[in-house]
Amino acid sequence: MKDVFVAGVGMTHFGKFLSRSLKDLGRQAVTETLRDAGVDVAALDAAYVGNAVGGLITGQEMIRGQVILSPLGISGIPIFNVENACASASSAFHLAWSAVASGQHDLVLALGVEKLATQDRQATFEAIGTAIDVEARAEIEDLHGRTGQNRSIFMDIYADLTRAFMARSGVSREDFAGVVVKARQNAAGNEHAQYRQPTTIDEVLDSREVVWPLTLHMCAPIGDGAAAAIVASRDGLDRAGVLATRPRVQVRASVVRSGTSTTGGEPGSARAAIRDAYEAAGLGPMDLNLAEIHDATAPAELMAYEHLGLAAAEDTPALLWEGVTGIDGEHPVNPSGGLLCRGHPIGATGLAQICELSWQLRGRAGRRQVDHPRIGLTQNGGGWMGHDSAAMSVHILERSSG
Amino acid sequence: MKDVFVAGVGMTHFGKFLSRSLKDLGRQAVTETLRDAGVDVAALDAAYVGNAVGGLITGQEMIRGQVILSPLGISGIPIFNVENACASASSAFHLAWSAVASGQHDLVLALGVEKLATQDRQATFEAIGTAIDVEARAEIEDLHGRTGQNRSIFMDIYADLTRAFMARSGVSREDFAGVVVKARQNAAGNEHAQYRQPTTIDEVLDSREVVWPLTLHMCAPIGDGAAAAIVASRDGLDRAGVLATRPRVQVRASVVRSGTSTTGGEPGSARAAIRDAYEAAGLGPMDLNLAEIHDATAPAELMAYEHLGLAAAEDTPALLWEGVTGIDGEHPVNPSGGLLCRGHPIGATGLAQICELSWQLRGRAGRRQVDHPRIGLTQNGGGWMGHDSAAMSVHILERSSG
Fold it and tell me: How far apart are CA B137 and CA B175, in angstroms?
């Protein structure tokens, strides 16, 4: 397998943009990414486009990538449309990595794009709800104790997982609120983020209850956005002229797996994907200089500390409160503000994480810059099979000297 | 790049099965494929699942592959959901090929599955119509002279392309009817085919006009079905125990590209993809012992003769009438009956073509067996960007002695 690099990244602001379309968002992210990489569209060998619910929200199925990219002059090359729910963008990035690692292509585009904000909030919840087996909806709702319909079913699933996590770890709602406070602090320095106002523990706890123990501010918002990356071999970097001009970002591990949904117990896909990524990169948790993890709700960040191997479940709050996972800590987590505050346009999130890692590793993250990071990890999950995620993706990126 | 083989194939019957679901169809094709390859689910490294309109027809978006495969015990591995309209299955097969060629995986599954037949025919036409830029629908309808709504827009597009082909080649409607007569003859020997009754030139010409010059029998039918393949490296073949027991089928070329939709004139993606595949395999048209091509309407078969380099446009009918492209001819085309008669469950078709080639190359095609073929080609197109296909895929397979 060849060495693979991220030659450039770009993303739109994330937020609720009623007047912006899937096309508009996708094209902006691609244009900024091409500019960042210094690559002309004519140099691209292939494109991998992740999107989750565009078919239901916009009516455009099957060829969303072509429809978005063609007016930019990106045509005549292989274009693949990839769906894996909230892990659609990281799945697209993985396929891009795979094509370059194999020597098949030298310079390819990965795009994640999503449009969730419309006048019809309930339709958006229902669209997101198609990331489960829709024929088993009643069964999955029962399994996770769903009691209301005015929210995505994923809030019930996360709440159920959170209750189990609290029971075995002793972690509290105040700890989850602490995650949100940190995320807002971080997002304040991120111009692409959806929620950038500071908040307090009390404000988070006092916000509307979505499903106990989750309050509204503990849940990632509905939003729109797009993020992209140019993935390149060494030859591709040379072709793009990236080599000489700045720190290189190398992909050290790219893992996608589905959960083992037929077994019960605690979901294991995040642990397994992280383990596989560590093994592929020859690294462990103590090597992480930063991580962007899938905090669709605040408790997921503490769970991730455990899955990453940073702490036992009961010790995860200490990492937060002692600042270990703050921007200035030893293992910063979600310096971008994460899904909670950068926002979660579901099919774009995985590539927004890649953008953040790339900027951080290149020292281009501005007010939220982590001090000289060398190794970063992303974790991005999607869909739910009743006992585990449908897709779980982990990437490890490194600022490379070679 | 490593050598890549088709270790086994399987498909459902194609047809209108009102009582069968996407899951049911997909699982049958996978089960038969695993049996054909002699592979246990536990041996699979990854799965690539092509489907086009399942989200609109069944309400299941984003994780269709996981939902279909998980109850078979296929979980814990990477699963990717791939959409490329009528080329979804060949796109999934290409990604499977790419993962094995790269050395990333040794034994992977490619599945194409589609459910089109429901009580609501108009809804199916509308779903298929999302394989264009839905925001440019009026413009594309105008461009191709669409006059009615009781059919898929693709019939208007094909009719328009056909009129242009007739004008420059002198090919007639009788020639197109001849393609259908041949397809029915071939399909009579294919138990998986949807239409197996013999027909006549007059019957084809006298069937209801869909859009001039196309009659109903010149158009591939709405239908349901699934087809799959196990794609393997040499190590994967060893693991599966396929090596010793039968002729090996090797993938000599795997090409996917989008059309160059921003330019006018005749669509060039089929020619370009075929040229690239010939170049990758070091072969030319005279090497083809058979081809399975994308005859969504009958004229497409004659156009394909030209694109394949078998004849100039005006000479294509002679190939048909002189039997050159019949099962016993020098270059048999669509011995399966093609899309016209095997049927066209759109996201399954590309892998049904791979099934047919594999069976033919292994000498397992029964009454429709071509005499000892060594080289076969598939061509599968999907979606429409106004002037060219959104996705065009060509594969070359060889019965391998090495």
Answer: 31
Q: Is A344 labeled as catalytic in the residue annotation?
A: yes
Neighbouring residues of B337: CB distance < 8 A, sequence distance ≥ 6: B183, B184, B186, B187, B190, B193, B195, B196
How many other CB atoms are there within 10 angstroms of residue A340's CB atom? 29
Phi, psi angle pair for B11, to nearest 5°: -150, 160
Peptide bond preceding B267 in cis form (omega within 30 of 0)? no
- Cβ of residue B70 closer than 8 Å to a chain A Cβ: yes
d(CA A104, CA A89): 21
Residue A133 contacts B, CB cutoff 8 Å: yes
pLDDT at B401 over 80: no
Check residue A334 and give its pLDDT.
98
A347's CB contacts (< 8 A; 6+ apart) are A50, A51, A52, A53, A54, A83, A86, A88, A89, A112, A113, A114
| A151 token code pair | 């929210």
A86 classed as catalytic: yes
CA-nearest residue of chain A to B85? A62
B21: nearest Cα among B125, B115, B124, B128: B115
Q: State yes or no: pLDDT of A243 exceeds 60.
A: no
What contacts B366, CB < 8 A, 6 or more positions away? B189, B191
Which site among B27, B66, B68, B154 would you substitute to test the A interface, given the most A Cβ atoms closer than 10 Å to its Cβ? B66
The residue of chain A with its CA nearest to that of B256 is: A78
Residue B337 CA to residue A337 CA, distance in Å, equals 56
- Yes or no: say if B10 and B33 are a contact pair by the CB < 8 Å rule: yes
Q: What is the dihedral of CA A237, A241, A243, A249, to 10 degrees?
A: -50
Query: Cβ of A256 and B80 within 8 Å?
Result: yes
Q: Are A395 and A377 in contact (CB under 8 A)?
A: yes
Tokens of B325: 């492209």
Structure confidence by residue, pLDDT tens digits, A255-313: 999 998 555 678 999 999 999 999 999 999 999 999 999 999 999 999 999 999 999 99
CB contact (8 A) between residue A132 and residue B101? no
A283-297, A329-343, B49-63, B259-273: segment of lowest average pLDDT: B259-273
pLDDT in tens, B330-385: 999 999 999 999 999 999 999 999 999 999 999 999 999 999 999 999 999 999 99
CB atoms within 10 A of CB B119: 7
CA of residue B209 relative to chain centroid, distance: 25
